[in-house]
Write a structure and sequence with these properties.
This protein is an alpha/beta fold. The chain has a single domain, classed as TIM Barrel (Alpha-Beta Barrel). 42% of the residues lie in helices and 18% in strands. It is built from 13 helices and 14 strands. It has an eight-stranded parallel beta barrel, surrounded by seven helices. A two-stranded antiparallel sheet has the order 1-14. Helix 7 packs parallel to helix 9 and helix 11 runs parallel beside helix 12. It is globular and about 55 Å long.
Length: 392
């Protein structure tokens, strides 16, 4: 299938501060990585040393033909203690955003990508009602310093993953398992934090679209369990898609499929379907098309694919996955859905949270001891698609 993307379609790659910067020792993830008896297989350490090598990373974005770089700013650096803001950290991120413009790359800034300052965790994290005001205050201070240089803003990355992994599955901070009360409270505060931060980002300097990035995918349940599937899907995706109604866009992030049993509980992959070894989920590129269609239906908002990719040691499978995913984007565009861009996750092989450095999502590999960057064939392939704005 060939796809010609519309004029102005935005091609980019994505990253997150805690996964690439290194040395983010003042946040809850660093504490979680080093705590005994968590699911983390290794600490983040120096990551890819992008805190110091950000200009090199932006150059990799540019030379491979991508027009935009989505990255996050680290709350624990900007506000290391409650109410204590670091001008040096804000100036650092301003230099980074300015470097994007200097190299002809559009900066797409995420204000929260999974990690909280340690003092926020001490307040109770996303269970605390105080976090909404604290997060909004941080966004207000950050946009005041950076907003005039931002091209696109994302409030919170995958709030549904923050709550599910942190309060139901126990593999994200604060590491609680099966705590539905805390999960419900966290979701309530995440929704309120998005709505409040959306308003302050729109009111700040600059004139850029703002949206929420939601973790989505394809869904399956056995015949007769459709009601359970709809309940699970709404709990995981619908709550936040509904919160994004009226926003400038919604960020769709999709990788695979969720299969449910008769009770509506997650079950294993379908026998015979290819598995992504590093992530233990199905090789399921069609998930992106399903997610785009559902997000458009629920929100009515324009769509950016803010994350999609494959963590695999075999780069040929990465190309095959992305090709099929982009064909799905093409079908959505042909049906009139307003999809405005695609960001591959991720630019670099980086720290993949509790799974450490095992999953390799990057278009560029990184040698851990020297931080040498080596582009993979998939970087040249996807870059050629971006340059031509066409999938042949």
């Amino acid at each position: 299938m060939s796809v010609t993307f519309p004029d102005g379609f935005l091609w980019g790659v994505a990253a997150a501060a805690h996964q690439i910067e290194g040395g983010n020792s003042n946040n809850d993830w660093w504490a979680f990585e080093h705590a005994p008896d968590t699911s983390c297989i290794e600490p983040s350490g120096d990551c890819t040393n992008s805190f110091h090598l950000y200009a090199d990373d932006i150059a990799l974005v540019r030379v491979h033909g991508f027009a935009a770089y989505r990255f996050s700013i680290e709350w624990s650096r900007i506000e290391p203690e409650d109410g204590e803001f670091s001008r040096a950290a804000l100036d650092y991120y301003r230099r980074m955003i300015a470097e994007c413009h200097e190299q002809g790359v559009q900066p797409v800034v995420t204000f929260h990508h999974f990690s909280n300052p340690r003092w926020v965790a001490a307040l109770g994290g996303w269970e605390s009602p105080e976090i909404v005001d604290r997060f909004t205050r941080y966004c207000e201070r950050a946009v005041a310093h950076l907003g005039d240089l931002i091209t696109i803003g994302c409030t919170i990355n995958e709030p549904n993953i923050v709550s599910m992994m942190g309060y139901l599955w126990g593999v994200f901070p604060p590491g609680k398992s099966g705590d539905f009360k805390a999960y419900t409270l966290a979701n309530e505060h995440l929704v309120r934090a998005h709505r409040a931060s959306y308003e302050v980002l729109k009111a700040g300097p600059g004139d850029f679209p703002v949206g929420l990035c939601v973790a989505m995918g394809d869904w399956w349940a056995p015949e007769g369990a459709e009601a359970g599937l709809e309940r699970a899907r709404r709990m995981h995706e619908g709550t936040f898609l509904e919160a994004a109604r009226g926003d400038d866009f919604v960020g769709v992030q999709a990788y695979s499929r969720t299969r449910l049993d008769e009770r509506g509980l997650p079950t294993g992959p379908e026998p015979g379907v290819e598995i992504v070894p590093s992530m233990e989920y199905e090789f399921w590129p069609r998930a992106l098309e399903v997610a785009i269609r559902h997000a458009a239906e629920v929100t009515g908002a324009p769509i950016y694919v803010t994350e999609n990719g494959l963590g695999h040691d075999d780069d040929t499978r990465r190309i095959a996955y992305v090709r099929e995913a982009l064909e799905g984007v093409g079908r959505c565009l042909a049906d009139g859905i307003d999809v405005r861009g695609y960001f591959y996750w991720s630019l670099l092989d980086n720290f993949e949270w509790a799974r450490g450095y095992v999953p390799r999502f990057g278009l560029v590999s990184v040698t851990r001891d020297t931080f040498e960057r080596t582009p993979k064939p998939s970087a040249a392939w996807l870059g050629s698609v971006a340059r031509s704005n066409r999938l042949d």
